[in-house]
Structures are given as structure tokens and as C-alpha cells.
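Hey,
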Amino acid sequence: MQQYVDLSHGHMEFLIRALDGELTETAASGLPTLPMTADPQLVQEAIEFLRGTSLPIEPRKRWPSGGMPLYELKGNIPEEHLAQPGKALCMWGDAGWGRLVQHGKYVDGRFSDELVKACAQLVRVWDPQPAPAWVTCIPSLRHPQLVPDFAQRLAFELGLLFRAAIVKTQTRPEQKTMANSTQQARNVDGSLDLTNKPLLAGSVLLVDDMVDSGWTLTVASWLLRAHGSGEVWPLALALTGN
């Protein structure tokens, strides 16, 4: 297989010989040779298409089997404590915004202003109702400034107030290291709380950088709604595809 991959030409001849065929029994194809490079204009059009789309974040409506022991939650999530359907800007690592998200998280340590403007435009086109009156975000003990910095700049771009309403109380393994959804839920159980500051009035845009299982957004939305917030609209930079 590696020999085939390394070929610069003669792929069909290689396959015929590998299958003990006779080269004299085959005829050359009349099809034109496939190009080795893509048309730059088509590449740019594809990138613009990807950057002009968004992806849905469906809210979880039931706690996992066995519940969330530390929060003492189980069964269906009451409708008044549910997140609303959310949006993600891209898939992690895709050719639209995904690579810029990766670079911001692991190289620059800061998400670019271009991503701020892209998310602001996403929210304007999305136009969730009732419209968010303020912005908060999912905190991280590993990258304490990354998402709050992005969320504050996004709030400014949208003309909304920002308040850091949620705190991370314990460092847990990353969600992507968990084997299944139940483990991911338990990994969040008891790890989030609210600050002592009163919540702002009205619906809230809940910002995170990546969505793996959706349990972090589910718990954060439950906390906000159970303590008197308006509708919670999740917004993430990227879905991981897990």
C-alpha cells in the first residue's frame, strides 16, 4: 500500500501487476488526466461556503442513566431548566473556521478578532428570540483567560453586557478523554457552580470554545435557569464531532 501511495505515475499498471493481470489485455483510458492541484478560485469558494454556514447544537433533555449524584439530578430535565437549541461556528479543524479556532487555542492562546466578528454575524443571522440581553461563558482552569476574553469581546461586538456568572470548582479530565456519554456527564457532575454575583436579567448567550458531548453546556444552562436566568442560548466556536 505504501508503495502505491508513493507512486508518481503508473498506478493502474501497479494494480494490474499486483492482481496478477496482463497489461496487454487492458486499454488506456480515454479520460483526461486528473489535475494534481485544485483551482484556487474553487478552493476559496469552498472556504467561503464553509464560513457562511453554522451547525446546530441540540439541547440534552434528560440526565444520564444513574443521574448526576453530586447535583442530585436524575430523569428528565424540566423544560424550564433546559437550554435552547444552540449554534456552533464550525467543525473542529475544518477548512472554514476550524483551523483558525485550533490555532487560537493551541498556538496563539487567544481567539482572533476575525472569529469574534464571525460569531457576531452568526448571532445576527440566527436572531434567537427572545434575544440575548447579556453574555456569559464556560470557564476553564486550564485556560482561564481564553474563553472569557473571547466572550467579552463578542459581547462588546454585539453591544451586550458580559458577566462571568459561572465558575469551575474542580479540574477534571478533558471530555474527549472519556469513553462514552455517561462518563462525560459524570466528568462534569459537581464541577460547575455560579458566582456570588446576581444574574443579569433577560436571556443569555452562553459561550464556549468547543462542544464534545454537550454535558458542560447542559449543566451550565441548568445552573443559570434554576437560579433565575432567562432563556439560555448556547454558542460554541467548534463542534468536535465526538
